[in-house]
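Priority: medium. Attachment 1 of 2:
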C-alpha cells in the first residue's frame, strides 16, 4: 500500500520522525491502512522504467495484520473498502540515479451519519544518487475524511534527506520532516523534526 513509500528520502538508518509520538505532535504519514490485511499486486510497467503496486482491502483501516495470530475480521469501523496504488522507478531510464515515486490511496466510508467522507492520501518523491551521495525531497498530504469539529481535517508533510556513504561499512545522513495538522475547528499544529543517523 501507499505506506510503503510514506517517507523514502535518503537516510542512513531511520526516518527523522521514527520515534515521535503521533498523538502529541500531530504528525501522521500518508495512508491509513498500514498493518491491514489485503490483496497486493506488484509488477513492472513495460517500457516505462517504473514498477506498479496496487493494494485492495475489503475492510480498510483495521490494522488487523499488525501482529501474528490476531483476528482479521475487524468490524468496529465505518470504513468499507480501501484502495491504494503507487508507481516507483526511473522514468524511461533517462537519467541515471533518479528514483521517482507517486502514490494515491482512498478508504471508502459508509457511516449513516453525515460526519464522514472518504479518507484520501497522495504523495510524490524525487531522489537522486550520485556516487556516495544521495539526496531527496518528498511531499505528502492526507485528508482524514472526518468532519468532526474536534478532529483533524488534513495533514500536510514535507521531507528532505541527504545521505553520504563514507565507505562500504559506514554511512551518515541528515533528514528533516515538517508536518502541519489542520483541525476542523481552525486550530493548527506544526511539527519540525531534524534527524541524524549513523549506520
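Attachment 2 of 2:
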Amino acid at each position: 500500500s501507499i505506506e510503503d513509500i510514506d517517507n523514502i528520502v535518503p537516510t542512513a538508518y531511520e526516518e527523522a520522525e521514527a520515534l515521535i509520538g503521533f498523538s502529541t505532535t500531530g504528525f501522521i504519514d500518508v495512508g491509513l491502512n498500514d498493518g491491514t490485511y489485503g490483496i497486493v499486486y506488484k509488477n513492472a510497467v513495460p517500457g516505462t522504467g517504473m514498477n506498479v503496486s496496487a493494494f485492495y482491502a475489503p475492510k480498510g483501516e483495521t490494522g488487523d495484520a499488525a501482529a501474528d495470530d490476531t483476528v482479521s475480521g475487524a468490524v468496529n469501523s465505518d470504513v468499507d473498502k480501501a484502495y491504494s496504488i503507487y508507481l516507483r522507478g526511473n522514468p524511461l531510464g533517462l537519467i541515471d540515479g533518479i528514483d521517482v515515486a507517486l502514490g494515491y490511496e482512498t478508504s471508502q466510508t459508509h457511516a449513516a451519519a453525515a460526519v464522514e467522507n472518504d479518507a484520501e492520501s497522495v504523495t510524490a518523491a524525487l531522489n537522486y544518487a550520485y556516487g556516495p551521495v544521495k539526496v531527496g525531497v518528498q511531499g505528502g498530504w492526507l485528508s482524514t475524511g472526518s468532519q468532526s469539529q474536534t478532529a483533524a481535517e488534513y495533514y500536510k508533510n514535507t521531507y528532505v534527506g541527504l545521505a553520504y556513504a563514507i565507505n562500504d561499512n559506514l554511512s551518515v545522513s541528515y533528514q528533516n520532516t515538517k508536518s502541519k495538522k489542520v483541525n476542523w475547528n481552525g486550530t493548527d499544529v506544526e511539527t519540525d523534526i531534524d534527524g541524524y543517523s549513523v549506520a
